[in-house]
Each structure stands twice: as C-alpha cells, then as structure tokens.
Amino acid sequence: MRSKVAIVSSAIMGKISSILGYFFGLLMLVVLVVPDKDVNFEPGEIIFLLFILLICGYGVFNGIRIKQRIFRFKKYTAVVSIQNKTSIDALAAGTGKSAEFVKKDLEVMIRKRFFVNAVIDHAANELVIKGIPSIAADVNPSQVKAVTCKNCAASNRVIIGQTTECPYCGSFLD
Question: Does the residue 135 lie in any domain?
Fold first, then answer.
C-alpha cells in the first residue's frame, strides 16, 4: 500500500506543479507581452517577472517529468510481471531506454517507494523484487485467476477468494 501512496502523491504533486506553472506562466507572459499605456516597467521589474516565468517553466517541466516517471514505472512492472524479465538490459529493451538510464530510474523509484521490497543487484545487473508469491503445485488450476493490479498494471496470479498484496506495489488484489 505504501507504493500506491507514493505513486498517487507523486501524481498529485506533478499535476499541481504543472497547473501552477501553466497558470502563472501564462499570467506572466500576458503581463510582459500585452502592452498597457499606463504601465512602464523598470529593468528590475522585468528581470523579476522573467525570473518568475523561469520558475513557472520549471514547474511545468517537473510535472511532465513526474508523469513520465509514473508511466515508466507501469512499463517496468508490465515487463517484470508479464514477461518475467528482471534484468536491467531486458527492462531497457522493453522500454526503449538505455540500461544506465533504467538502472538510475529504478534507483529513484525504489528510493521514492514506487516499488516495495525491491533492490537492484548490481553484480547480476537485475531488479530483485522480494516476496513474489508462487502458487503451490497442489492448488487446482481452476482455483487460480489472473488479475491486473489497478495501481501499477502488473499481471498477477491469485487464488480465487483470497486477497493478497501485489508484490510490485503493495496494493491489495482480489
């Protein structure tokens, strides 16, 4: 559940950052560009308004960056859960990014708690997610169903009637 909170809070912060950036950025552009006969800006005021415009640009950029990180998280969990591939090179191939980018991206996601119980094994160059449950061999296959996590879009197998946690993000599956 911690992962879901981290992802949702990141998404909210990204949207707030983008909305404020766009709003105040457009406001600053209107103030700077639309001529008013009664207003003459001093050089210091123009520099201040340009500085505010720069901060607004950063807000928009930050919001877009957060949205892209959440999208990549969902791609990583899909590659791991559906294709059962955990090597950094396989994740890179599945997402079209370089292995070095994927490794750094996963480290940020682990630090920000997008993944629960995950570490990067640098020696093996792979993502290790602890606690991925396996369905016991004595369970009848008709008692098992495939479910998709509503939070991270990972594909999981669960026993019908049992609630379990998604091993990738910690959300409940039923």
Answer: no
